[in-house]
Q: What sequence folds into this?
């Protein structure tokens, strides 16, 4: 076909845009406030699939976790669930209210009734323990080593678990218990050793099962 017909085929039918207007822009974050964002702002965020935390009045968007990070968190949940009593639930990426912050630990161990209630943010004393799987990068390490643990401790969460999936001896798991407002190392184990937790319930496992190809017993 000659020019005129080709031009017609490339154009929308007259009136199409009126009948099919483009979607309006949706703000992911409410407009910035001079005093910073609040827990209420955080809880009102749309459920877009991103992992967005509220830290010191600012929204922090975490990138998509690497596949080995996701595998590690999922396996840790299964190990803990297999040992958990019926009144305790274990899940990934549950919103937690920590003082004036809204954090999303990689794994949350909490009261079962609260966890299945559909609430968007849970807090201590319903939270029994949280776990973070450390991702590569200076910012990620600082968040999981320096920023988030003191906030979990200040909120009264009794147990903090940190999993290192890179480096010598990885995967390496450290378990901290709350003592006088601060976390103290209670136990640790690397791949090939046995890690034994006593809180919030007894469970023992080799950290090696958290990464790499699945090992059949």
A:
């Amino acid at each position: 076909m000659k020019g005129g017909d080709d031009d017609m085929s490339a154009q929308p039918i007259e009136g199409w845009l009126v009948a099919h207007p483009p979607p309006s822009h949706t703000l992911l974050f409410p407009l910035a406030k001079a005093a910073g964002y609040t827990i209420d702002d955080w809880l009102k965020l749309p459920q877009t699939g991103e992992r967005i935390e509220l830290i010191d009045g600012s929204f922090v968007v975490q990138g998509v976790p690497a596949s080995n990070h996701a595998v590690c968190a999922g396996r840790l949940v299964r190990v803990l669930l297999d040992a958990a009593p019926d009144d305790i639930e274990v899940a990934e990426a549950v919103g937690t209210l920590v003082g004036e912050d809204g954090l999303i630990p990689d794994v949350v161990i909490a009261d079962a009734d609260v966890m299945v209630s559909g609430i968007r943010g849970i807090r201590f004393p319903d939270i029994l323990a949280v776990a973070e799987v450390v991702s590569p990068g200076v910012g990620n390490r600082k968040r999981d080593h320096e920023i988030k643990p003191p906030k979990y401790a200040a909120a009264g969460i009794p147990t903090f678990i940190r999993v290192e999936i890179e480096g010598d001896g990885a995967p390496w798991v450290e378990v901290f218990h709350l003592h006088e407002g601060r976390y103290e190392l209670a136990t640790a184990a690397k791949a090939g050793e046995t890690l034994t937790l006593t809180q919030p319930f007894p469970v023992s496992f080799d950290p090696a099962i958290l990464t790499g190809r699945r090992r059949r017993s």
Notes: The chain is about 25% helix and 30% strand. The first strand starts at residue 51 and ends at 55. The two ends are 68 Å apart (CA to CA).
